[in-house]
Amino acid sequence: MSNRLPKVLLGLNVYANGDDYMGSATKVKLGLPQPVTKEINSPGHAGAFDVPTSKWSKAEPEVTVQGINAELIALVGDPESANAPVSFIGAIGGYGEEQTVEIEITGNWTGMDAPDWENDANAEVTYKLSPQKYVIKIDGREVLFIDYVLNVVRVNGKERTASLNKALRAR
């Protein structure tokens, strides 16, 4: 049993185009991509089993940002937004053991939802993204990298698609 205290999210800021501060996130749904498998149930086998396909599910992250930010609203539906990375940089931990967590997404801003406007309501907007590139780093160490377009996947620094891309002469 570990004697470590539980870690909590201590804050999360949103940056576009690198270092342009866009506001504080009040909630982020990471929409983490998952490895895709295919079920095989062929004659001659004892039963059904899954085999890897070398593909990953579509990530569907959402971020709720405090305030009404015209620059972020302008990214929704703009084809040029697919080339502008957005970063969510936060800290987890506590008790003097904080770690930096960075999620960087490059892709399309596909939608937004604002809450009903009423007296004393939170002034925030939730944005939906469709990543073409998805990166997670903890204390600067790459944990997950997915480039959907180029079919490059790395998990903890280990490339998972190199042999497939070599066989397909893709790179």
SS content category = mainly beta
What is the global morphology? globular
Percentage of β-strand residues: over 45%
Number of strands: 11
Spans where pLDDT lies below 50 across 5 or more residues: none
Largest sheet: 6 strands, antiparallel, barrel
Kindly report how far apart the N and C termini lie. Answer: 45 Å
Features:
171 residues, mainly beta, two-stranded antiparallel sheet
Descriptive report:
The protein is mostly beta strands and 171 residues long. 7% of the residues lie in helices and 52% in strands. The chain has two helices and eleven strands. The strands form two sheets. Strands 1-2-5-8-7-6 form a six-stranded antiparallel beta barrel. The N and C termini lie far apart (45 Å).
Provide a short characterization of the protein structure.
The protein is mainly β.
